[in-house]
Specification:
The structure is a single chain. The strands form three sheets. The chain has a seven-stranded parallel beta sheet with strand order 3-2-1-4-5-7-10, with helices on both faces. A two-stranded parallel ribbon has the order 6-11. A two-stranded parallel ribbon has the order 8-9. It has one domain: 3-Layer(aba) Sandwich (Rossmann fold), CATH 3.40.50.720. It is an alpha/beta fold and 294 residues long. The relative contact order is 0.14. Helix content is 37%, strand content 16%.
């Protein structure tokens, strides 16, 4: 297959490229400058400008791009950057391609459902409003515009992706220092997914044409943020007792604190119905696997 990736050097992208390189695929990576030494030499690097000159039809475009939504407080400037890196880029790729791609696999996030501690959210549940929802909805809308070109579109709404790197890397030092206790009481829901299951779902959507539409890509196990804190601290042989008050996070992060202090209960209903086999259903098993080198 001819596969185009955006976000190839990101957390998920690095795992995915390693998996794709095991097979006989021609990989193209969308980059800002065609000199990224982090990419395997066999991967063709393309900017948006050079993408316009590509006279080949792409079989699959895997859209992983997007600046880290939790990296900095949501100022007006930061919100614009988050939109640009997701929504605008997705639109630009569609307009730059000479030939429509056959299949698009695009990421979104469970932030689509907004802020709520009550009820269970499936792919059919009406979302709550807020910035995270607006960002994810616009991103998904941009992906679904590819349908007008005859492209088959799959959208995955990701939970917190757990693996060596990514979110866990940012949490590791506070937990090692014994500062990884419950946030704002810890009763908010924590939707998670092991990186192996993210890669497994993407690979399945590449090879199985019956994948179409939107899927919640989260583990089937429902846990609270407190339960996650206890499990992660245990995997590091550390305690998880010191709580982080809500007001502290609100003071530091402003509106963005809602990502940490609130969380909806998300179910992977459509993936379970189609028989997708999760490698990791249980948070303790997932974190143990990661601690052992995943």
């Amino acid at each position: 297959m001819k596969i185009l990736l955006s976000g190839a050097t990101g957390f998920v992208g690095q795992y995915l490229t390693k998996e794709l390189l095991k097979n006989d695929h021609q990989l193209y990576a969308l980059v800002k400058k065609t000199s990224d030494t982090r990419l395997d030499p066999s991967i063709v690097q393309l900017t948006l400008s050079s993408l316009q000159t590509l006279d080949e039809q792409i079989d699959v475009f895997i859209n992983l791009a997007g600046e880290n939504i939790a990296a900095r407080p949501w100022t007006a400037k930061r919100k614009e950057a988050l939109f640009q890196s997701r929504v605008t880029l997705t639109k630009q790729v569609r307009l730059s391609l000479k030939h429509p791609v056959k299949r698009l696999i695009s990421m979104s996030a469970v932030g689509f459902y907004g802020i709520s501690r009550h009820g269970t959210f499936t792919e059919e549940t009406m979302p709550k409003q807020g910035f995270a929802h607006e960002l994810c909805r616009a991103w998904e809308d941009a992906a679904n515009e590819f349908i007008d070109d005859g492209t088959q579109v799959v959208v995955f709404r990701l939970g917190v992706v757990l693996g060596n790197g990514g979110a866990l890397e940012k949490m590791r030092l506070p937990f090692l220092c014994g500062l990884g206790g419950p946030i704002a009481g810890g009763q908010q829901w924590f939707s998670w997914i092991h990186i192996a299951d993210v890669i497994g779902a993407i690979m399945a959507a590449m090879s199985d044409a019956s994948y179409e539409g939107t899927y919640n890509l989260v583990a089937p196990q429902f846990i609270t943020q407190k339960r996650f804190s206890q499990a992660y601290a245990s995997s590091l042989n550390r305690p998880a007792v010191l709580p982080t008050p809500r007001w502290t996070l609100n003071l530091i992060f402003g509106e963005m604190a809602s990502l940490l202090t609130e969380g909806a209960k998300i179910a992977p209903q459509k993936l379970e119905k189609r028989g997708f086999r999760f490698q990791f259903h249980n948070i303790d098993d997932a974190l143990s696997d990661i601690a052992n080198g995943r």
